[in-house]
Specification:
2 strands, mainly beta, Voltage-dependent calcium channel alpha-2 delta subunit, about 15 residues, elongated
Amino acid sequence: YYYEIPSIGAIRINTQ
């Protein structure tokens, strides 16, 4: 799984 931080400041966690 990986986490990416957009410039929006929100943390998006995707589990695949």
